[in-house]
Amino acid sequence: MADSQRVVYWIRRLSEIAMVGWLGMMLMLDLVLAGVTGGVQWLVPICGVVGIAAVLFRRRRRLEWFTFLLALSFVVSTLTGSSGFRAAPGLAETGALLVLLIGVLRHIEPVRKAAALACVTLVVLMTEAFSRDYNDSGLAFAFLLFAGWSMAAGAGGYLRFQQERRTEAVHSVRRSERLELARELHDLVAHHITGIVVQAQAARTVAETRPEAVAPALEAIATAGSEALTSMRRMVTVLRTEDDAARKPGVTLADLRLLTERFSADGPKVAFEIGQGLDDHTLPPEVMTTLHRVLQESLTNIRKHASRTAWVEADLRRYEKVVVLRVRNFGASSDPRVSRLGGGFGLVGMAERVEALGGRLHAGPSREGAWEVVAEFPLPDAGGASQGVSGSPGRRAGPGG
User: Who's near 63: CB < 8 A, 6+ residues apart?
Assistant: First the structure.
């Protein structure tokens, strides 16, 4: 996995270098033409230099650089046309405009703003073609620039479409996860209320014969009610939150072990270890359910994306006021898209749950070269705030890694 990510990284770096190199060669041709032609043609390489700078820094201030280059190109074209001097369109300038146009159509929100900028780009390119009418070649320049604009706009529109599909898929996963949480909320309420009712009935029974036993029973009822409110508040937060990411009654640590045993029966062998200081009463119900879901999703991803893995190592441990679930698979690579929670939509839903409980979820390669999923939860006495742990395994990062 680490090797595949390194390959992807260098492919991106090399493509970036190749693009800048291509623009650099276009700039050299602009300089040669300016040296031969002279006059206002020297303004064209200046636009090319600005265009290359805009491409290099496009990820920081994409819109600002793009609008500045559009304005500069339009001004130079207007000056060239009004002077009557025979000039030619800038190669580096035009290439930078087309490269930036792809990114604008892909990233700028809302989409109508990106479409408006694309139309403005077409106007600037046509102005460049007809104002820099070198040897009466304005019509040919206009045709070539329009063809380039069409390809750039098509590429940017396609990337935008794919990004919108991706965003909609993520929203669909989150909606589905919230519906599942709503069903679990019903079970959680029934679980807590049943306990409160039983304790209230017991208190009423002993009130006549042992009045001194009523006070402890009432205190137990108040504690159970407080726990119910805390659990429900956490789950309702997930249902109400639009962009941010529970143990069902009956889910226990034995269910986690049973899940790994079933996976081992028809897949890679799983070594599952539960550390000291953890039992069925240590973790809140909603945390137990989320642990079960994260473990299930991690094993499912191994079956889908790393079916040839040699073995799987899973452990649940307590570190001071934090409990950590870690799942690692060895001997085979996973799908690189899952590292960014891109291909693994189930992990998107899991991140919703984990973060709503004050925890953190990380999926990515470990230092040993294995693929791991690490879910970290604060224990009840941590006050609902996620805390880092020195000595806890894996890196601590958000869903993005």
Answer: 104, 108
3-state secondary structure (DSSP) of residue 100: helix
Most confident of 35-39, 64-68, 341-345: 64-68
Cα–chain-centroid distance for residue 34? 46
Q: H helices then E strands: how many in the chain?
A: 10, 5
Answering whether pTM is above 0.85, one says: no
> Are 65 and 57 contacting, i.e. CB atoms less than 8 angstroms apart?
yes
What is the arrangement of strands in the sheet containing 311-319, beginning at the earlier edge strand? 269-274, 311-319, 322-330, 371-378, 360-365
In whole angstroms, give the CA distance from residue 332 to residue 314. 16
Tokens of 274: 């539960």
Q: Are 138 and 129 in contact (CB under 8 A)?
A: yes
User: pLDDT digits over 21-30, tens only?
Assistant: 999 999 999 8
Could you check whether the bond before residue 285 is cis, i.e. omega within 30 degrees of 0? no
